[in-house]
Input
Amino acid sequence: MSTPQSALGSRENFWFDESTPLEELQDTSLGQLNVHELRRLVRETTPFNIDVDVMGEDELRKWVRDRRENPGRPSECTTEYERARWKAHKALREVATPVSKTAKHAPPDRGLEPLFAWLYAESHQDLITDHDPLAVHTERCEVELTRPVEHVPREYSGEEFGVTEYGQKRFRRRFDPDHGYLGGVDFEDLPMGEFMEVAEDVLGDLKVEHSFRQAKIDGWLEDARNLKRKQDKTDQDVLTEILLRVFMNTDD
Output
């Protein structure tokens, strides 16, 4: 029988105090870790970028459990989310225009506007936090990326010389010609009809691969249509969310 503490997670870090040593979290039993601590464990012990904020608690616990039980096994180097994200990216890359992810989503440089908002704010709701003084773009926009043309150097980090560059990475990178941002690929949102064609093609292949019933596929397609209609997510986010539901229903 679970105790309130094991059911809710450790209350010692209720306010998300990240001063807790990482080694202590690694030694804490899985049932005593709350969602924030799980995210921190995955984020700080994974040698590649992973968007832990979109991972559910079940997937976070599955990830940490798998890493603890199989620390040397490289086979599951991605979660169901990363697998869904990659497949969505691959499908959209064939039909959608690649645009700068930074210019489309990252906070822009709003100049002195945040300063004046701070000086005259009557409440914290009047403050402007969506601002990055180091950004090159001054408003969010869609800028088509170039073809992969830029060579990116490899980096080596050592105690003696610090971070040094040498050679170049195998694949070239796209860049934003308006702002100079390197890489960071997103896609121009497709019209509803074109997006649904992509979703139908992808789910049709998965239906054959995993022997899903058509009713199941139709339900996911309707979910995709509803999420797309809300227009609060990118096409890649919508397709990723649908594919994540699909992969969570497979035994692979």
